[in-house]
């Protein structure tokens, strides 16, 4: 009976250690952030855990140096760089507690060891291009015919008027 009780106590101690490790990892993941600045220093972005934008700074020169569409593109690129930095921190945090063969990026993406064909939605298909896989909407002939006939009738209606 004492042997059984000792095993139960050992299992409970393992469980408590695992929970504490999980809580520690969760705290580290919640604290993840990434920062990036544009090459010219006019844009600075900070993202938090999950890649959420939490800070964006634009210098006075940003408005003078860049046209609106250029500034918008620069902001998007800078935020993406900050998100990539935060993602790398996330992967490092997770890799410390995952088995060596587990890819933290795939785990975060929700794909783990699945192939694209195993997790692609039913209305998409994955085409392997060798260096990358591309997912796209599968053509549905009936749907395309309905769309085309609707468009044709709209065009005809406009011409008649």
TrEMBL record:
Keywords: Coiled coil, DNA-binding. This is Conserved DNA-binding protein YbaB. Residues 146-161 have a biased composition (Basic and acidic residues). Residues 1-35 form a coiled coil. Residues 112-161 are annotated as: Disordered. It comes from Lentzea flaviverrucosa. It holds the Pfam family YbaB_DNA_bd. Gene3D superfamilies: Nucleoid-associated protein YbaB-like domain (3.30.1310.10). GO terms for molecular function: DNA binding. InterPro entries: YbaB-like_sf, YbaB/EbfC. It comes from the Bacteria.
């Amino acid at each position: 009976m004492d042997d059984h009780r000792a095993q139960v106590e050992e299992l409970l101690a393992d469980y408590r250690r695992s929970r504490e490790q999980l809580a520690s990892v969760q705290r580290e993941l919640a604290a993840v952030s990434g920062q990036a600045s544009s090459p010219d220093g006019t844009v600075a972005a900070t993202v938090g855990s999950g890649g959420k934008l939490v800070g964006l700074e634009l210098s006075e020169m940003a408005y003078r140096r860049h046209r609106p569409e250029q500034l918008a593109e620069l902001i998007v690129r800078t935020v993406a760089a900050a998100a990539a930095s935060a993602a790398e921190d996330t992967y490092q945090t997770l890799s410390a507690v995952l088995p060596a063969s587990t890819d933290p990026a795939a785990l975060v993406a929700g794909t783990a060891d699945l192939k694209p064909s195993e997790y692609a939605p039913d209305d998409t298909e994955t085409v392997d291009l060798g260096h990358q896989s591309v997912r796209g909407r599968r053509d549905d002939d009936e749907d395309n015919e309905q769309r085309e006939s609707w468009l044709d009738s709209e065009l005809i209606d406009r011409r008649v008027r």
